[in-house]
């Protein structure tokens, strides 16, 4: 009779890293929201682990800026202040400009094909109004440009800052037209990179980051207006539709 070999237990360090990665996904996907307490019992049950790895993961995520651990109270998803978010957008604009400029000067044919493929995939996500898909590809597009730019330190800084912005960044695409605007900017940036124009790529990349900040501010402003005046917001939406049709 054949018997299966016993399963190898994952090392505690590997298990903690895996749990941290899965909790990070829950945070960046908006399942766990800013200010929400990490329920160790519920998370351990849902992730199929004991409470120890969840506690270890919370400490690891505190170092990345996604979680705040308060003594005798527990761990909470970090709330990112508006001022801090604006500062991060400004820093990321410079970093993304640097990466795009460097990538434009050394882009290979295979990398160019990959960029085109991602821009076209985002177009498809816009057509189907698939925001989650758009957000996923959008994040990959930015990360890929950093990989092409071959500056590991800049990529690491950008990844760390962007991880914090994930708490808010999805809201940049909540309003109609925002995804299309962003991908139009992606396409212009891509064309500059394909032309090998590093200076133009830098300018377009920095502008794209700052326009992303403007889209985020527009989204939260619209949300606040809707909460304060739901009836007038609906009326404005109807008027806007009429203007678009005209």
Automatic annotation (TrEMBL):
SUPFAM superfamilies: GntR ligand-binding domain-like, Winged helix' DNA-binding domain. Residues 227-246 are annotated as: Disordered. This is DNA-binding GntR family transcriptional regulator. SMART domains: FCD, HTH_GNTR. PANTHER family: GLUCONATE OPERON TRANSCRIPTIONAL REPRESSOR, TRANSCRIPTIONAL REGULATOR, GNTR FAMILY. GO terms for molecular function: DNA binding; DNA-binding transcription factor activity. It comes from the Bacteria. The lineage of its organism: Bacteria, Pseudomonadati, Pseudomonadota, Alphaproteobacteria, Acetobacterales.
